[in-house]
Each structure stands twice: as C-alpha cells, then as structure tokens.
Amino acid sequence: MEEIRYFKICLEDVVEKLREYFASREDVLIAILFGSALRRNIVRDIDIAVYLARKSLNKILRMGWELEEILKTPVDIVPLEQLPPKLKLKILLRGKPIIIRSPSTYTEILKTSIGELEDLKTIYSHSDLKKL
C-alpha cells in the first residue's frame, strides 16, 4: 500500500508561481485555486480549476505535469465546466482567482452554475428522493 505524502506550501508563493505560469498561456481564460491549499500550509495536492478557450485533455494533463515540476507538489487540474454545479459555484465564489482573462465568461459560468443548482433543487423538491 502506498503511503500518503504531504507537502509544505506557502500560499503566496504558490499564487505567484501560478500567476507567472498562466500569464503566458493565452488559451487559459480562467484559472482558480481552490481546496485545502487555501486553508492549510500542509497539503497532499494543489487543486486548480481551469476554463480553456479550446478544450483539450492533453493540454490539461501537460499543464498538470508542468505545474508539478514548478511547485514540487502534486497538482490536480480540473476543467471548470465539467464540475457538478455546487462545487463549481463554491470554486467560483470562494476560490482564489489566479487569472480571469474573460470576465464575461466568468460571469456566464457563474450564472449557469446558479441556474443548474436551482434546477437541481426544483427537481429534488418534486421527487420522491426527499422522502429517503
């Protein structure tokens, strides 16, 4: 069994390195730091949500590897648009924005997330699930 490793980080250093990294990546419209790195200085990984101008799994994987080299800490990069509405909304409202090249895209994703969450609440309130 593989043991769980923890890494000591400094939030200010992580944010600075992430901003430097994403500054030259024009296809990354939005990058937001979220998760335990915002609350602790000892973490298992660093979580980043991104929104790309052109969707590419290879690009996301490559960014993850490059950032792991830079930060010397495991990195999880997730496509913002593929997250569940509640998590997406939490990231948008409570995460640490690294880069927002398109405020209109950010606002549109935020509005869509709120709408999706409201739709889920409506579906739940009209279903038999609430009886469980």
From TrEMBL:
Residues 16-102 form the Polymerase beta nucleotidyltransferase domain. It holds the Pfam family Polbeta. This is DNA polymerase beta domain protein region. Signal peptide: none annotated. SUPFAM superfamilies: Nucleotidyltransferase. It comes from the Archaea.
